[in-house]
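quick one
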Amino acid sequence: LANNPSARRHKFWETQPVGQFRDAADVSLPDGAIEPPTPLSEVRADPYPLPAAFEWFTCDLDDDALLADLYALLAHNYVEDDENMFRFNYSPAFLRWALRPPSFFRAWHIGVRATESKKLVAFISGVPARIRARDDVVRMAEINFLCVHKKLRSKRLAPVLIREVTRRVHQENIWQAAYTAGVVLPTPITTCRYWHRSLNPKKLIDVGFSRLGPRMTMSRTVRLYKLPDAPLTPGFRQMELRDVAPVTRLLRAYLARYVVAPDFDELDVEHWLLPQEDVVDSYLVESPETHEITDFCSFYTLPSSVLNNPNYSTLKAAYSYYNVAVKTPLQQLMNDALIVAKQKNYDVFNALDVMENEAFLKELKFGPGDGQLHYYLYNYRIRNGIKPSELGLVLL
Ligand code: NHW
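structure w/ 2-oxopentadecyl-CoA:
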């Protein structure tokens, strides 16, 4: 049983409209919504009950003090690697960006605090998105930053948070959601792997993120990962506000190839892809002759705290986001992304094996990580799932 997650019982997830492991072989089930919307008047009006001494609390992220509380909750209690050596350290500016896209709902930034001390002890969030599955564009919530304080774990608080965010999403007449997790739940639409490209191999080895390869010395390793000082593609430059329309056109045409992908309009592109220092970086290739925008690449910034290391407290990591190579070969475009990330002092560049990424990972000296990332849809079935290369969606 322990080696077979799909045989495990899921007391909460078995009650939810998600693909159930027991239905995996049932070919008669159609793609699309698992259950129909209920009339809005039947959506529960009151928040779900919390254990005594805790209360719901909607986080206003305009408020710097509340943002600092959320940052601290996550910095101390959010996702760690299997060996508890690193913990995600989303910055306050990143959280503001991630949680306030166009038409966001404040009510979907859901905290739980201790009634007496007002200390924030748990959180879950949603943001609205249009996500296309095959030819069906669906209004969804992207759910992220589910976190329960370490001292309150295994008390079934997570299902209460999930039910509450579901209720608040339903109140907006939205019935589907997308989310990712490192754990296996019923039922992933696909399972991806992270790949890592060392930019600062010495530090990565010192903090235990990577190991010196067999028959390798430190100086050979440093040489192996060395990159040019500046991008190589003529016309490679940072994206600016004036580029939003052509980038949206490029991205929409490109994402149309994938089975599951976001349906971005110009407002989304302005929010999600216009560079913000230490949050999101986007570059494009402007043809030196025609001034046409031909290619695009982007990454977001998510440092990790290094736990229990005497020399280092953080790893600066870039995560590949959306990339579109039309005229420039993808491998060359991504090599330029690595070069700018190195210039900006990132220690590592991470990428999932989604979209066309397999085509450059090995060649650009990415190595496979040990963690997996499972993608899920709530109340939406995709029979047999999809391959990572059919997925055009990156969640933060
Ligand atoms: S994944 C990151 C999740 N956060 C972390 O890993 C941070 C560190 N861990 C924790 O804070 C990205 C706790 O361990 C958490 C669980 C809070 C994870 N997703 O309270 P109990 C996201 O944020 C199930 C979903 O006792 P706990 C995406 C588990 O399978 N379910 O556990 C979030 C079990 O149910 P089961 C998860 O350790 C997507 C139950 O929770 C889960 O104290 C959310 C146990 O609860 C996970 N990552 O707290 C779903 N981890 O049925 C959104 C555990 O198996 C769905 N569980 O018995 C869509 C909603 C919107 C729909 C709108 C129409």
